[in-house]
Fold this sequence. Notes:
Helix content: over 70%
Distance between the termini: 56 Å
Number of helices: 13
CATH architecture of the largest domain: Up-down Bundle
Structural class: mainly alpha
Order of helices and strands: HHHHHHHHHHHHH
Amino acid sequence: xxxxxxxxxxxxxxxxxxxxxxxxxxxxxxxxxxxxxxxxxxxxxxxxxxxxxxxxxxxxxxxxxxxxxxxxxxxxxxxxxxxxxxxxxxxxxxxxxxxxxxxxxxxxxxxxxxxxxxxxxxxxxxxxxxxxxxxxxxxxxxxxxxxxxxxxxxxxxxxxxxxxxxxxxxxxxxxxxxxxxxxxxxxxxxxxxxxxxxxxxxxxxxxxxxxxxxxxxxxxxxxxxxxxxxxxxxxxxxxxxxxxxxxxxx
Length: 250
């Protein structure tokens, strides 16, 4: 008889961690949780588990369009190779689910809802406006005013690709995109990004409770130390916003 001790113990540990998170009474709905956890495992190139989390997305009622939209955002915030690998696995997983009759017609359908802007210049301008709305006009203009020609190249690319393309896509709400960014940053230990996207999430109406829940999930899918650091960064940004006169109405 084959000894499966290590696989059995692994399953127990995963179950214990997930039970612990459940006991925290997280209020993240099942579809959002499925998307956020898929973003975390894909960003960390945990490729053996991407298919499993795509299946969880399908079980939560999500389909090809939802997962594709998530992985487009992953491309921006985790890089081309994690996104490319996850796209391939997701495509295979959806084909399997479809062959097994586990997808509805809506889940099988794929819509590619592109941003409304069509030219490079339009996307740069639109992206800058989106970035200002997300992080605060004064703070972004202050950062840009200190940039030299070399940094301008990076910012133009950021405005065109990240904000004028990804953030301008209409399928996901801005609040959901903020949560996806936080999930990726927290799970991968991108402390600067955690700060920026905590700020944009709070300004955009995402509650501090929801942000804390995302950091809890990062403890499972990105490790305890990344989660702990995320809470510390989140507290710092929250305090800074209050000091600036921002009112927490969530």
